Amino acid sequence: MAMWKTPANAADDAVDDGDIRAALRTDDVRRALTLMMNRYGDEVYRFAYAMTHSYHLAEEVRQQVFVEVYRDLGSFAGSASLRAWVFGITRHRCLDIAKKHRRWTQRFKNQQPTDEEPDDHEPEHDLDRSRMAKILAHCLAKLAPAARDAVVLRYHQELSYDEASAIAGDNAGTLQQRVARALPALRRCVDAQLNAGGRR
User: Fold this and answer.
1) What confidence score (pLDDT) does residue 4 get?
2) Which fold has domain 123-200?
3) How many other CB atoms are found less than 10 A from the CB of residue 25?
4) CATH class in words for 15-115
């Protein structure tokens, strides 16, 4: 399971939501939710992790997202794709969590406790992938929030600029410009981290 895919692969992995829409037409909300959780659950988690840099917060976001999806699925208007709708909810829950943690930090003026899970033994072939994922997460965190959103929506979630625009609430051209400006900075950061041995 690749953590980062290129948008070129997005067309190959295009998801047909016909089965979900069929379940909704027959008012089988539980089946539609189950299908959506199976189809989008891992992607929602990866997106939330890319935004929060925390396994625990990413899991919390995933749970909140599917509670909201269940609550609102019966009234889904269908004006956007189901995927864009789910990731719009995910993005907003990530922003809520970030705001909550900023308030916590300001209130107590302490470092937030790290909730990194202990590294268990990883197979050797996964070390490079794991190292690169950590470097990417570190470098993404250095980007401005708007640029990070645009890059994650485009490359991590493989959304078109139009879909990302519907989620982010910005023009597609603006998002494209943010990505174009962020990629060189991201590339420099990754190169510097690789040359430094991946140490922060």
Assistant:
1) 37
2) Arc Repressor Mutant, subunit A (1.10.10)
3) 9
4) mainly alpha
Rounded to whole angstroms, how far apart are CA atoms 194 and 188? 10
Question: What is the distance between the alpha carbons of residues 82 and 79, in angstroms, rounded to a whole number?
Answer: 9
Instruction: List the structure tokens of 83.
Output: 């995927």
Give the chain's radius of gyration (CA, Å): 18
Contact 78, 25 (CB under 8 A): no
The total of other beta-carbon atoms located within 10 Å of residue 152's CB is: 23
Give the H/E segment covering residue 161: helix 161-168
pLDDT tens-digit series, residues 132-190: 778 888 888 888 888 888 888 887 777 788 888 888 888 888 888 888 888 888 888 88
Under DSSP, is residue 200 helix (H, G, I), strand (E, B) or coil? coil
pTM for the model stands at 0.55
Segments of the chain assigned to CATH 1.10.10.10: 123-200
Please report the pLDDT score of residue 110 as a whole number. 53
Cβ 163 vs Cβ 90: under 8 Å = no
